Amino acid sequence: MSSLVIPAKEDRFMAIGVLRNGVIAVVFAHIGTEGISIISMRDASRKERNL
């Protein structure tokens, strides 16, 4: 499994990858050095799928 991770707004990142039969976009933020906070997970848009 692999994903494309790109910077998003402020201290957030977006990961785009395949989950089962679709492509999803996950926005997350780092919490300290060992954790992450999932902010949102949704179907990737057409633009995001084409990255």
UniProtKB/TrEMBL annotation:
Q: Which domain of life is it from?
A: Bacteria
What is the taxonomic lineage of the source species?
Bacteria, Pseudomonadati, Pseudomonadota, Alphaproteobacteria, Hyphomicrobiales
| Keywords for this protein | Membrane, Transmembrane, Transmembrane helix
Q: Which Pfam families match?
A: BrnT_toxin
User: Which species is the source of this protein?
Assistant: Sinorhizobium medicae
Q: Which residues are listed as membrane-spanning?
A: 22-41
Name recorded for this polypeptide: BrnT family toxin
